[in-house]
Amino acid sequence: MDARHKAGHDVDGMRAFAKTSPGYREALDRVREWTRARFALGDDTAILVAEVACAVPGCPPLETVVAFWSDERRHHTKIFKPVAEVVEDDLPPRWLKGSLAVPDDFECTCC
Question: Is the separation of the CB atoms in 16 and 8 below 8 Å?
Fold first, then answer.
């Protein structure tokens, strides 16, 4: 991996400024609202949506991470594509909500 990729300046031909564009923020908001609706989360429920670069071999260069807190537990999932490409059907079905809960000692570098 070269220094530009590492610094986040160029990932798979996408420039870093894309993360500051209105379209990027709209994509984050869209995934956040789909998550809220899919899992019947209240307006006060914290939902994190982030696009992260992955340097692990075999991992897509950009992936979308979704985390939310419900019933005093953190829930977590990854979608293996950039946030701008995520569609509503990429989210897990509602009935999988329980399996998205992570243990209290779960550590993740993405969220």
Answer: yes
